[in-house]
């Protein structure tokens, strides 16, 4: 049974030359459907936003999906590989980059719901080798929303084993007191993911692929793409158009390693909109990831998700998605008590690898959401602008009739 609204606090144009544009021809039914046939006006609305974007940045292929009142619509553009000329389809796998972190956060929230951990615990509680280090004063809650005290964006070069990682953490010294500055960090969320899986007596890979993905109905999402699905794995391209895919690395699974389809990602958004999930503990965990813990500029930092009061101006969204928010320490203020999940909120996350770019956003009060997956790196601001334009068109429109 879906969680009720009581869980939320109510608040007052040409294609690139190498692209083949096509609408995925699939049908389905309400809820976790593969797709519904899109009205022509909706297709036109999406095309007007996506076609110029692909032309401007030379993006080979994109998969765009929207949910409107729990109906799913899919729009596939261009090619998955310049070499094979294979078109983007509903089966095409994209690297989702840091959107992977939202799944890690969901796992941690579930572990807390089940009593396996508490976000108020110190990080060192779960790894004896960290006791007596700076992590005695860093809570799990400081790892997910990023106010850990200045953990770096990336795991330092040369760290290839868990023992080496723990040695690094044990010797690391914070730049700020935990909870005072937001510093976006793969090692931070990576450690949270490690602790969540450990608390459940599972490896992180098994916790995600064999437990969380099936529970969410994400049947075509992977950390390591199986051989049988490698033909579906899009080729990524750098900003300079060099072919590239993400390389294995320490904490990649926890921080940026998921490959997924637009359909699976839309199922995940619907789950966050409290639709299609029957496991009540998972419903609670998903809602918990929408709790606001820190304020940094215009951004309310949830457990990885980034939140804004809705309706929201584009300029406000852009201010929360600047390079400074990704690469610099920004002053943050704890929200006391934490802000309960808000129905009237715009919740979003960007994801990037060197060859892929992604953006997801949803508004619980309006029951709308968008997934944008591309097999080329392009600016975050452009993703946010186009996503905003599409979502503003969805809000209040009668596309489903």
Q: Gyration radius, to the nearest Å?
A: 20 Å
The first-to-last residue Cα distance is 26 Å
Beta-strand content estimate: 15-25%
Domain module tally: 1
Major β-sheet, in short? 10 strands, antiparallel
CATH architecture: 3-Layer(aba) Sandwich
Question: Counting H and I runs of at least 4 residues, what is the number of helices?
Answer: 12
* Gross geometry: globular
What is the highest CATH level, the class? Alpha Beta
Question: What do we call the CATH topology?
Answer: Beta-lactamase
Stretches with pLDDT under 50, minimum 5 residues: 1-34
How are strands sequenced across the largest beta sheet?
Answer: 1-3-2-16-15-14-11-10-9-13
Order of helices and strands: EHEEEHHHEHHEEHEHHEEEHHEEEEEH
Can you say what the CATH homologous superfamily is? DD-peptidase/beta-lactamase superfamily
Indicate the structural class: alpha+beta
The overall average pLDDT, rounded, is 91
